[in-house]
Structure formats: C-alpha cells, structure tokens
Design a protein that fits this description.
Helices cover 36% and strands 9% of the residues. By secondary structure, it is mainly alpha-helical. The protein starts with a helix and ends with a helix.
C-alpha cells in the first residue's frame, strides 16, 4: 500500500474467489482443476489464458468497488 500511494496509485482490495473460474465475458462459472491453464467458457465460447481471465475479473470487481464507494 505504501508504494502504491508513493507513486500516485490507488489500492482497491477485491475478493479473489472464483476469479479464474468465472467467465469475464458472461459470468458463467466454469469449474476447472488447477492444472487447466486455459479458460474455455461452455456458455459463450470465450477462450483466454486462465490468469488473463482472472485479471479481467479482478479489474472489473475493482472498478465496481470504486464506483460504489465514490
């Protein structure tokens, strides 16, 4: 948090639960083991790296949290 503030950033904490399983496009939950590295949505067909999908979900949660608190 210190370095974030020092460099003019904003730290927003979000709940990381299911961020790698929920589709960042349609919110469909796609259960997968940790050995599966690709997110393939069975509902909308979105194909992404598992962690890229999680990063999008975390960013979306942070934006939503920021809008709610301001």
């Amino acid at each position: 948090m210190y370095k974030c503030e020092k460099h003019g950033g904003v730290l927003i904490k979000v709940e990381p639960t299911f961020t790698s399983q929920d589709c960042s496009c349609c919110n469909n939950r796609v259960k997968k083991s940790l050995s599966i590295r690709t997110h393939i949505c069975t509902k909308c067909g979105m194909v992404l790296d598992r962690y890229y999908n999680a990063a999008i979900n975390i960013l979306q949660k942070a934006i939503k949290e920021m809008l709610v608190t301001n």
